[in-house]
## 1
Amino acid sequence: MNMIECLCMQTLRLTSDELRQFEALAAPIRSAWKTEEVAMEYIDSREKMSVRLWQLRVSSPDLQSIAVLAGKGLSLNDVVEKVTSIDLSSVSEHDVREILYALGPDVLGLIIKNILLSVPTSKDMEQVHAYATARALFFAPLTA
């Protein structure tokens, strides 16, 4: 790898379990990314998620419905399924930030895990990067 390729690589901030999953991926996918292990010490709960969902203000009807369902006790796996069924590229940046924060680190971690367990494409890895970056931005400072 030359200097330019190295400088252009993006860093995936993954937990130790996620790093193990990443290392099991095919070399061509792995070679495009740098990794950094993060310790997610923030302890989330359904109560904390409920408060974040209660504070949620989004204009997207799809995201509003996810917030309502998640607030009513939908399982985390079902929440992940609903979130990943929506094309977030068609949702405003504000709404994406809001829903990712409201869902919290546990849901974001499940999304990352599910993508890594599939046979991810380059586009899928961009999504892993986005979810992992959001998780680090929103929740890593709370662990300091």
## 2
Amino acid sequence: MSIKLHWSLIGFVLFSLGLKAQDRVFPYSFANLYGLVSDKNEVVLKEKYQSIQLNKRQWDNNKFVVFSQLFKNGNTSQEKYGILDNTGKEIIPAKLSKIYYDFYGRFFYVLPAPDSMEIWHIAKKKCVLRTKFASFEYDGGLFVVKDKKGNSTILLDNGKHKLISKNVDIVNDMYKFYYSYYDEGIKKYQYITDKGKPASIEDPLGYDDFPMVQMQHSDLQSLISEKNGQLNALKSKLGTQNVKPFYSRVGDFPLVAAYTDPATKFLTLYDLTGEILLDKEGITQMESFKKGSEKFEYIKYKTGNYWGLTDFNGKQILSPEYSSIEISEEEDYYFFVRHKSGYSGYCYQGQTPYLPKESGCTDLK
């Protein structure tokens, strides 16, 4: 079963399970059940659920966690979702068909009926609005709910809400987001911040207008030419058929290369100048990571039956004691790892895996 997820920083002291203010919680699994572990590798909630999910952008605000249970009715089964807080307490039991997030980690919402909604403020750990609706919109951590009479209710960052007898939309100006409505009296658009304060904007600059800073084409071509020249020199030295390059995340040029010893079939990681970066005994495989068209500057390597992880500088991130290491489908720069002990969990780039100490993982602090 796939594991998905949601969470991160905890801004106040939680006494019930001994979590400290700086602690975060993450999902882990064992024997196909899921629980929660702190970033100190202490079990917060022992594995008991069929899944615990983490959506994008929830790493930095994990006051709430989505879990699911599978309910069987005769020969059919249906997955229902509920909400845990970051101590493992059930806030909403597993009775919902779907839970939605605003993608900026401020709110999530549920639809108990086709025309009614509950909006929960994640940091406040509470439901801040229950209402009927005709339509709604959210972006940039802002949320507006519209009724059939043309009124709009806007949600503020402190969890309060404000009724405006206008049709309110959400606009962005250089990736800062505002509520906006047209004032017929003065024939101008009015803008409101997430604090509920008026804002002055001449002409909002949206996504498509945002100026992007890019490497000059001539500089990029020069770099590509340099790196390809170094790669060709390395191939001449070690043998073309024995060298496998790994490419940069930005720009399509090589940065490092794996060399296969023709006699032993073991691999060594080189930079393009011929310096050895990783020469661990018995490496039989090296693989880089891709997600769609995006590349990541990490390499997993296999010794015996298990995988380890290194970056493009040869720095060991994970010891070779994992049955699998993959880029998370939910969030970039997080790896989903399955330890040889049977425990699974997440690992942020270059940091300690979020696995229980009971796993016996030697990479834990």
